[in-house]
Amino acid sequence: MALFAFLNKKQKSAGLAGISQSEQGLAMAKILRIPDQKPVLQHCEFMLCEELEKNAKSGKLEKVPFTAVMPSGEFSMQLLDAPLVESAEMQTAVRWKIKDMIDYSLDDAIVDVFEIPGLKEKGRTPQVYAVYAHRNSVQSQVDLFENAGLNLQYIDIPELAQRNIASLLEEDEKGVALLRFNAQSGLITLTQQGTLYLARELDAGYQVLADLGVIPDQESTDFDAMESDAQRAMNAVVLEIQRSLDYYESHFAKAPITRLVIAPMEIEIPGLADYINKSLGLKVSMLDLNSIIQPDAPLDSKMQAQCFYAIGAALREE
User: CA angle 47-67-33, nearest 5°?
Assistant: First the structure.
């Protein structure tokens, strides 16, 4: 699905590109889907914001359709009981359901909806995720990229870009938690067979540990011996993971998730996987995007981290 799909400019093209923003700059990636093969990463780069127009007009991605990732904080995502209406009327019904949750006019809200499958069959109340943003926030994304000459087709959110990557993991068949840290925050998604069931933001990012004295390039990190602030930050992350797993199991009537995958980070935090494993008893592994996509040349961890959401956005399918 494409969130905020009011752009309505669908075109056939060989491949799809994704673009995402961070405080450090912009990431671009282009993916080509070939049946029965790993997705092919045809282009990947990270640039300063002021380089966008020059790079967009370089010819490498001319006329390629783009998916832009909406920055966190520019939209809201809410799990709701599904209105008792036909699917064609769901979006309109959800708009009215969220009217008291927003602090701006409903007329200014761009709203999209995606459903959680299988709940009714398990005797649970059907539920949907509502994703909504102020029209001006969405339009600013449109203006930024279209003014740079990009062929913007879709606007998506980090949660679904992360879901697209999780769906390529072998662990997704039975259910997997994918944890991604950026510098100041994090995001955990719980998926199974390509369906996003739960997404939660984390207050701690990898920079918190570095700022509190954990040396990222040492051979091992003794989290138990860390300063109390760093220990509290790690414990808060572990607690949020546990709460998410418990909620997934109880609320959606799913079998327990036993696998956690940690997305690439710009700096290494040795011992992180072992710490989560010992705390929660999960099988924890670090993700190497080179194992699930085909790049022209292997991507190092920093480039994987910088372009993570751009790659996820480029992996979207109808």
Answer: 100
Together in a domain, 177 and 278: yes
Residue 257, domain extent: 170-286
Residue 254 placed within a domain: yes
Alpha carbon 254 to chain centroid distance? 21
The whole-angstrom separation of Cα 148 and Cα 136 is: 18
User: CA-to-CA distance for 85 and 10, rounded, in angstroms?
Assistant: 28
Say which residue, 302 or 54, is predicted with more confidence: 302
C-alpha angle 183-186-189 in degrees, rounded to nearest 5:
150
Look at residue 227 and tell me whether its pLDDT is greater than 70: no
Residue 131 corresponds to which amino acid?
A: V
Report CA torsion sign: 314, 295, 63, 51: positive
Closest CA to 110 of 137, 78, 134, 141: 134
How many independent structural domains does the chain possess? 2
| pLDDT at 217 exceeding the cut of 60 | no
C-alpha 216/C-alpha 221 separation (Å) is: 8
Task: Read off the pTM.
Answer: 0.90
